[in-house]
Amino acid sequence: EEKLNLDDSQWEDIHVVTGALKMFFRELPEPLFPYCFFEQFVEAIKIQDNTTRIKSIRSLVKKLPRPNYDTMKILFEHLKKIAAKESVNLMSTQSLGIVFGPTLLRPEKETGNMAVHMLYQNQIVELMLSEYSKIFG
Fold it and tell me: Which residues form the Rho-GAP domain (predicted)?
């Protein structure tokens, strides 16, 4: 409901914009990848065969609630554009996975596997960026 003046100089700092985007997703009542899908995505990213892994992730993405799917498609399309400018902004798909993985995808209850979960969260985001056209196409 708050009116923002995007011409304000505070929005010139890309870190402020990125922080606001991450905070938006972090403060949602449920992550963009709903809690009930967390373990399924983790199991999918563990699949050894790359083609099967991509098909499994694609299948899960298609099962998401429509608002989640639509938001995810737009967000990952945007993040893919950022990764395409890696030589300028130093943000590779791996870097974006590290930054956005834990924000977009997390278990409902944190367990002792936080470090392992973080690795999978990063890998899921990275795969979805690198295989965007196969997953969302």
Answer: 1-136
Joined tokens for residue 61? 């993405």
Give the tokens for residue 65: 């609630």
Instruction: Give Cβ neighbours of residue 89 (< 8 Å, ≥ 6 apart).
Output: 82
**So what's the pLDDT on residue 98?**
94
For residue 73, count other CB atoms closer than 10 A to its CB: 15
Whole-number Å distance between alpha carbons of 106 and 4: 29
Domains and CATH numbers, the chain: 9-136 (1.10.555.10)
Residues of the chain with pLDDT under 70: 1, 11, 112
pLDDT at 1: 61
| pTM for this predicted structure | 0.88
C-alpha span between 42 and 4 (Å, rounded) = 37
